Amino acid sequence: MKNRLVGETPLLILAVSMMAGIVVGDSIVVGAPLLPVFAGMVLVSLLLWKYEILQSVAIVLCFFVLGWMLTSRQKEQLNIVWPEGDVAYEAVVLSNPVEKPKTMAVDILVTANGHKLKCYLYKDDRSRALKIGDGLKVQSRVSPVSNLHIGNFDYGRYLEVHGFSGTTFVPGWKWQKARVSLSGISRIDRARIFFLKLRSRLLARIRDYSSSSDYSDAYSVIAAMTLGDKTALSKDIKDIYSVTGASHVLALSGLHLGIIYSLLSLFVFRHRWQMFSQVLLVLSIWAFVFLVGMSTSVVRSAVMLTVYALLSLGRRDKMSVNTLFFTAIVMLIASPMSLFDVGFQMSYMAVLAILLFMPIMDDIVPGKYLMDHSLIRWGWGMVCISIAAQIGVAPLIAYYFGRLSVYFLLTNFIIVPAATLILYLSLVVLAMPSLAYILLYIVSSLNKVLEWVAAIPGASIDGLHPTKIQTTMIYVVIVAVYLIIVRLRRPLHVA
Q1: Is 267 exposed, middle or buried (0-12, 13-18, 19+ CB in 10 A)?
Q2: Torsion-angle region of 384 (φ positive above 0: left; ψ -120 to 50: alpha; else: beta)
Q3: How far apart are CA 1 and CA 365, in angstroms?
Q4: Residue 7 pLDDT more than 70?
Q5: What is the value of pTM for the model shown?
């Protein structure tokens, strides 16, 4: 595949082709008839082995059809025809109850078929006391997720992207706790429930030491930053982190897994039994992924770290555009609707921008000077990564959230070292809960610093709501500027 059509990054083209197929499949669901088409395209690509360009075109079309086929299949699986009236079923609770104005919202998994529902229970002491892993016997009417809107927010699309196949409201007299069998759901779902229950117990350890109102916000940040539970975050805390450009630390991503991977690397054999060590690291990372709920950004990071670990055994290039888009292809094969997830889009655009723009920024300051000044090297690296990531995600942030942080660079110099310290201390606290007050004090201090940054005049630019076309054109301009810079750099490197 190394020819003029695909160039030096073949997986980029294949991933883009697959994404195009997913977009088409989201609008045109055809299902089974695409399977023979895909098989035929694979056969044609194999028969064209003597014609490189034609074979490359055929392979690109294979990935287009694959994306279309997988998306149609996933939408068919989620598009369940529920009975018109009440239906009796057993389910297991997947999330802690979240209090709404009139109900308690929980995610439940139907044990008979493995379908996930967004369930709204009548608010009372029983529904407030539910915990992850509790079994339920329910009788209610289930509504499909299509055409659900809350103002301008497409709630149905959100539920569909996150794997929900229905919503239901359950009055207090139509449900009860019960022992239910999990034999009807997959092993992955059973493992996920086990780890979610473990996460709840770990969070309870910290919560016991944060009962004071002074530390409630600190607990919510720790829960989000370390174990991926954002249910306790207040609107004020979300706004402070959003205005300062620190929201990314509240969503587990490559930053968090990178810190954990580096920490775990200190406790494994570096030279002897290297393969065993890397396997142990990868298994530990994936156990953490299950523990924190398998969000899109953390799964992407785990796939990349897995590839990184495998490539390190062969002394191969560990981080490249091809590696990034290999992980995208893997994730989209597993769940094509992830393409429409905000976390997926922002995660990949941030890493892609870092991979593309970091080499350009590295040339600004002489490498020898940076090697001789470690503190300046760290500071310059922080500046480059922050700016590059912001280039990648700023259009998406403006499109989805209507806001851009002005002081994101200042914030990153505060939040990244703080997040590293918090993650390390969290591991200590899980082993020694009596030290939780130290962790709570540090996070509380961090919140106050960010609150001060958010209060600086002009901390954010609000009211930005570009359309899809405008957002796309911004990225076109960014790509054009990048290509121009690369073209201008070539004569300098040749000279």
Answers
A1: exposed
A2: alpha
A3: 36
A4: no
A5: 0.84
